[in-house]
Write a structure and sequence with these properties.
Blueprint (H helix, E strand, L loop, with lengths): L7 E5 L4 H12 L3 E6 L2 H11 L6 E3 L5 H14 L5 E4 L14 H29 L1 E6 L13 H20 L4 E9 L2 E2 L16 E2 H11 L10 E4 L8
Parallel strand pairs: 1-2, 1-4, 2-3, 4-5, 5-6, 6-9, 7-8
Helix pairs in contact: 1-6, 3-4, 4-5
Length: about 240
């Protein structure tokens, strides 16, 4: 396995339950971090916990091209290169078609598909210059197996998987690797705003989900983990 010590890693979604914990693990392993997230107050807290200085953080809305552009500029004002891009950002709207509004559908696509597109658009060229790097996205199991009420969410995650598979074909003559992490049932803030009866005590713990990201950042140089599936014992759908 490759060590993350000294590697330049951008964590987008660092204010979320999983992203913040992954950032702590990576910081503890000696990685050079740049943290980005939607919530400025939480971003300050995560930066303090990981000893990341303020100039290596940026609060943004990843669905807005101009803000992702500024993120790129700020990142490369600190680090000359990017070894790993972790996209742990996104939103979850779980509603039946009768309750799902057009605004909610488009908002889901904007954050879960358009946002990742903007990130890759800005940071992939730097990886192409040196012909190496790693991009980690988290489609979740609903990017493989849909469920009732997840029309918008699954559409965004299926789209993310298809987009990254296509990009993988474009860069297959380089050492740039793309990994999709399919996680299902993580006890995280994802469920805080979802009106659905779930057994959160039987879900994967956010700490364990973060460890999966930490592990994937250390995949061997001679190979690639194209995808990883992590699910609770009581709800395996793949």
């Amino acid at each position: 396995m490759e060590s993350v010590k000294g590697k330049n890693i951008l964590v987008v979604g660092a204010t979320g339950s999983i992203g913040s914990r992954a950032a702590k693990l990576l910081a503890g392993s000696g990685a050079n971090l740049f943290l980005a997230g939607r919530n400025p107050e939480k971003l300050v807290a995560v930066a303090d916990q990981t000893s990341v200085p303020a100039e290596r953080t940026f609060s943004l809305d990843i669905s807005k091209p101009e803000e992702v552009q500024v993120l790129k500029e700020k990142y490369f004002s600190v680090y000359p290169s990017i070894d790993i891009l972790i996209n742990a950002a996104g939103i979850g709207i779980i509603k039946n078609m009768e309750q799902l509004s057009e605004v909610e559908f488009l908002r889901t696509l904007n954050y879960n598909l358009y946002g990742p597109f903007l990130l890759v658009k800005q940071f992939l060229p730097a990886m192409k210059e040196v012909k190496k790097g790693l991009i980690i996205n988290i489609p979740g199991v609903l990017g493989k197996v849909p469920m009732a009420g997840a029309a918008a969410y699954s559409a965004s995650k299926y789209g993310l998987v298809g987009m990254m598979q296509s990009i993988r074909e474009e860069i297959k003559r380089t050492d740039i690797r793309i990994t999709n992490l399919f996680m299902g049932g993580v006890d995280s803030s994802f469920w805080d705003t979802i009106d659905l009866r779930v057994q959160r005590d039987k879900m994967i713990q956010a700490d364990e989900a973060a460890k999966a990201i930490w592990f994937l950042c250390q995949q061997p140089a001679s190979g690639v983990v194209s995808e990883m599936v992590l699910q609770p014992f009581n709800h395996q759908v793949i």
